[in-house]
């Protein structure tokens, strides 16, 4: 396969437009580049998460997710094209089931906090939700957008929440971690009740 990029600074976007994969040009403010940018930002945040100390299985999963997000972004850049396959969503469903099975039941809402890796997973979760909203908005304007990207981002956000909980329990020093719970009135009452 030949090289796809021969130069980065093309200056063709100086007029406020960007090129899509089908060689059309659209405004950078339009829905398609907006959705593509949110997916790219999500992929970059996952790259940052990969700089942390992670369990090997989580690292392997996140690397594959980065490739799937590149497929998703490519699909968004070429109207009516399919790059994201059904097995990508199945992989997320399997990972959700696997990691959820290892976690205790939630007592209350949790804060996006804890270890740096867990906090970064929460950033990924929120950026995935934003990317999902952008894809939903694009789909409402353009019937060429398949449901697969929207479904993938929805499921990925769920998975990043679960992985944040997993990562709060993964401590390189061997200590035991936990979720950082929101100190709601209900939780405070439950903690103050006699056993």
What does this entry show, briefly?
This protein has 195 residues and is mostly helical.
Molecular structure report:
There is one protein chain. A two-stranded antiparallel sheet has the order 1-2. The termini are far apart. 58% of the residues lie in helices and 3% in strands. The chain contains 6 helices and 2 strands. The chain is mainly alpha-helical and 195 residues long. Helix 1 packs antiparallel against helix 2 and helix 4 runs antiparallel to helix 5.
**SS field, number of helical segments:** 6
Helix coverage percent of residues? 55-70%
Overall shape = elongated
State the low-pLDDT regions, or none: none
Q: Tell me how many strands there are.
A: 2
Euclidean distance between termini CA atoms: 67 Å
% residues in beta strands: under 5%
**What string gives the helices and strands in order?**
EEHHHHHH
Instruction: Give the strand line-up of the largest sheet.
Output: 1-2
Largest sheet: 2 strands, antiparallel
Class by alpha and beta content: mainly alpha
Rg calculated over all Cα atoms: 20 Å
Mean pLDDT: 87
Keywords, separated by commas or semicolons:
single chain; 195 residues; mainly alpha; two-stranded antiparallel sheet
Write the layout of secondary structure elements.
Blueprint: E1 17-19, E2 25-27, H1 31-49, H2 56-77, H3 86-100, H4 116-141, H5 147-169, H6 185-192
